[in-house]
Amino acid sequence: MLSVKSLRIVSSSRAVLHPCWLTTNRLSVSKAVTCSAHCMSASLHKKCTWLSSMNFRALRKERQLLFYTHRAPSLRNCCTSQVKLNCWNCKHLLDKTPAFFCVSCKAVQPPEEGASYFKIMDCDYTFTLDTQKLQKTYLQLQRCLHPDNFSQKSVKEQEYSESQSALVNKAYNTLLKPLSRGLYMLELEGMSIEEGTVSGVDSDFLMKLMEINEALDEARTPEEANKIGQDTKGKLADLTVQIDAALLKGELQAAKALLVQMKYYANIDEKVKEKLSEFM
């Protein structure tokens, strides 16, 4: 790559031989210098970004217990836009995102596109979130956003309240149970578990599931069915601990495999409830 000084020397020598060259090619020289500076800047930026990434990985390894609060959030975990928004009604600047109401005119706001369920429900991005706090937030939001509160408002506010209320419902139901919460966290990281798939599942594990299902079908008393239910709940609790540990370490593939197992055990748990209802 030519330095700026070298370009000046070449320019001067060419100008002596061809007086018109300096005038007609000044723009080309300027472009070459600009391009050189841009390439150097891009190279330095790339190097700094790489070093920052290396430093972050080292920090995360040393402080795994604080993984969720210190890790660099991916685009999937955050709202798609950090731009300040204004109220659709009075144009006042909204104080936070996602915003449910304008602090100035109190008008209900439309749902913010791309906001994660964790942000909507004001929860920490963690598999072991506080479900009591989640339920409290849910009740507070629904008391404020329920469409019945806006029956005398404009059509637009009625539509926004219905959309916000439905979104809060969906966010709450997704985050409430460990299985749906874990699957949603994988989805935020760009991973998913296909419906009905058994690929990657250990054959011994599938055999064990068949035995449990057969025992449940053959259960003739509530005690027998309840015993299977208690064993299943214990397994679900154990899987919850393992999944949380995998996510804390950023081991997404391991978390995915464990969530597949949780999905099967959650299905058995539902079958136990159905079986117990037959004895009533």
TrEMBL record:
What GO cellular-component annotations does this UniProt entry give? mitochondrion
- A biological process term (GO) from this entry: [2Fe-2S] cluster assembly
Query: One Pfam family of this protein, by short name?
Result: HSCB_C
Question: What SMART domains does UniProt report for this protein, alphabetically?
Answer: DnaJ
Compartment(s) where it occurs, according to its Swiss-Prot or TrEMBL record: Cytoplasm; Mitochondrion
Chief localisation class: cytoplasm
PROSITE patterns linked to this entry: DNAJ_2
| InterPro entries cross-referenced by the UniProt entry | DnaJ_domain, HscB, HscB_C_sf, HscB_oligo_C, J_dom_sf
Which UniProt key words apply to this protein? Chaperone, Cytoplasm, Metal-binding, Mitochondrion
Pathway entry: Cofactor biosynthesis; iron-sulfur cluster biosynthesis
Q: GO molecular function of the protein, one example?
A: ATPase activator activity
User: So which domain of life are we looking at?
Assistant: Eukaryota
Which residues are in the J domain? 116-188
Protein family (similarity comment): Belongs to the HscB family.
Name the UniProt record assigns to this protein? Iron-sulfur cluster co-chaperone protein HscB
Organism for this UniProt entry: Amphilophus citrinellus
